[in-house]
Each structure stands twice: as structure tokens, then as C-alpha cells.
């Protein structure tokens, strides 16, 4: 978990899930930098949001650590790859918040619980009310709703499965992060 600097008044925040939103997901878990592969257009979408004045923060469940599939050093190596590839597109993340626990650990940080989002709110000294929170799973949307955020589903990763799971349909659904980012930038420019 890191955060680069405190938020400044008027700065806009967007919170993203990682696997299935930024990079390809796998039911076998993403366990190494070699397995971490950015989805087409996702890094460019983050850079576009940055250029429009948004700070981007990632919140992610990484139970592969609790399951012994990889360790925190390997997770750091994956995030270093993400940062390098994102920098090559002219973008950057302002923070990455990780739950390393397994489903049976009963922690407060594992989505759909709100611990990671509460930590983001505290670290960035802002409310998450109305903040776009983009994910590909029901638990991402539930966590967003619980803090008053703006839940946005993408169809990448587990997104299509989430749409078919029979739960309440999300209000906002986009093909991918690039389409969602385009909408957010359009809204911001329309308000100017």
C-alpha cells in the first residue's frame, strides 16, 4: 500500500479494481509479473484520466498471498511493472491499497467490506461520496455503494459474469476502462 501525497482541494479521485479492470484476470490468480498483462487500452485510459486532472487509486483483493501462491515481494514486482508500463503511457497511480487476506480471515479490508475504501478516504482526506469506483465484480460495486461512491461496472474480467449473476443490475456499465474513462472525462469537460 502506498500513497504519493495528500490530496489538494478540488482534486478528483477515481478508484479502480485491478484484476479484470486494468489487467487480464485469471481464476488461477495473477501470481507474477509475467502473468500480469495490461488489458488493451487500460493504461492509456488511466493516463487520459490523469491528464484530465484525476488522481487514480487502486484497491484490490489479493488472497493469493494468504493462499501461499505468491508473496508481498512478488506483488510489489507486479505493481512495479504496472507503474513502469503506465509511466510509458504518461500516467501514474496515486496509491495502491491491497487486502492480502483470504475469504475465511474475516478481515475488514476484503471487498465487499469497506476497509480499503475507508483507508483511501482517510489518506486522501476526502469523502468518497460520488467518487467513481470502477470494478468488474459484484463485491467491487457493493463496496462502492457502502461508502456512497459511484459504482461503475466494466464488462472486462468478470464483468459479463457479474451482469449475469442475477443481482440488481448496476446503473452504469461500460465495455472497458477506456469507455468508462471517456465518460468521466466528458462529464468533467461538460462542467467546465
UniProtKB/TrEMBL annotation:
E.C. designation(s): 3.1.3.-
Catalysis: reaction(s): D-glycero-beta-D-manno-heptose 1,7-bisphosphate + H2O = D-glycero-beta-D-manno-heptose 1-phosphate + phosphate
Top-rank EC class of the record's enzyme: hydrolase
Binding site for Mg(2+): 17, 19, 136
Keywords of the record: Carbohydrate metabolism, Cytoplasm, Hydrolase, Magnesium, Metal-binding, Zinc
Gene Ontology cellular component annotations, sorted alphabetically: cytoplasm
Residues flagged as site, Contributes to substrate recognition: 110
Quaternary assembly: Monomer.
Site residues (Stabilizes the phosphoryl group), renumbered to this chain: 60, 111
Organism name: Alkalilimnicola ehrlichii
Stated family: Belongs to the gmhB family.
Pathway annotation from the record: Nucleotide-sugar biosynthesis; ADP-L-glycero-beta-D-manno-heptose biosynthesis; ADP-L-glycero-beta-D-manno-heptose from D-glycero-beta-D-manno-heptose 7-phosphate: step 2/4
Main localization category: cytoplasm
Annotated positions binding Zn(2+): 99, 101, 107, 109
Molecular functions per Gene Ontology: D-glycero-beta-D-manno-heptose 1,7-bisphosphate 7-phosphatase activity; metal ion binding
Active site per UniProt: 17 (nucleophile), 19 (proton donor)
Name used for this protein in its record: D,D-heptose 1,7-bisphosphate phosphatase
Subcellular location: Cytoplasm
PANTHER family the UniProt entry points to: D-GLYCERO-BETA-D-MANNO-HEPTOSE-1,7-BISPHOSPHATE 7-PHOSPHATASE
InterPro entries in the cross-refs: HAD-like_sf (IPR036412), HAD-SF_hydro_IIIA (IPR006549), HAD_sf (IPR023214), Heptose_bisP_phosphatase (IPR004446), Histidinol-phos (IPR006543)
Amino acid at each position: 500500500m502506498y500513497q504519493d501525497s495528500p490530496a489538494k482541494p478540488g482534486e478528483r479521485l477515481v478508484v479502480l479494481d485491478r484484476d479484470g479492470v486494468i489487467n487480464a484476470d485469471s481464476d488461477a490468480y495473477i501470481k507474477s509479473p509475467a502473468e500480469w498483462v495490461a488489458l488493451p487500452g487500460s493504461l492509456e485510459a488511466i493516463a487520459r484520466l490523469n491528464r484530465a486532472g484525476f488522481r487514480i487509486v487502486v484497491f484490490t483483493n489479493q488472497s493469493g498471498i494468504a493462499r501461499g501462491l505468491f508473496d508481498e515481494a512478488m506483488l510489489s514486482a507486479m505493481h512495479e511493472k504496472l507503474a513502469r508500463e503506465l509511466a510509458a503511457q504518461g500516467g501514474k497511480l496515486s496509491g495502491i491499497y491491497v487486502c492480502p487476506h483470504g475469504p475465511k480471515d474475516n478481515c475488514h479490508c476484503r471487498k465487499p467490506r469497506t476497509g480499503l475504501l475507508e483507508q483511501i478516504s482517510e489518506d486522501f482526506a476526502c469523502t468518497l461520496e460520488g467518487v467513481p469506483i470502477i470494478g468488474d465484480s459484484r463485491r467491487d460495486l457493493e463496496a462502492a455503494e457502502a461508502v456512497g461512491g459511484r459504482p461503475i461496472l466494466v464488462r472486462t474480467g468478470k464483468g459479463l459474469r457479474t451482469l449475469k449473476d442475477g443481482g440488481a443490475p448496476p446503473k452504469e456499465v461500460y465495455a472497458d476502462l477506456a469507455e468508462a474513462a471517456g465518460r468521466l472525462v466528458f462529464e468533467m469537460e461538460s462542467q467546465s
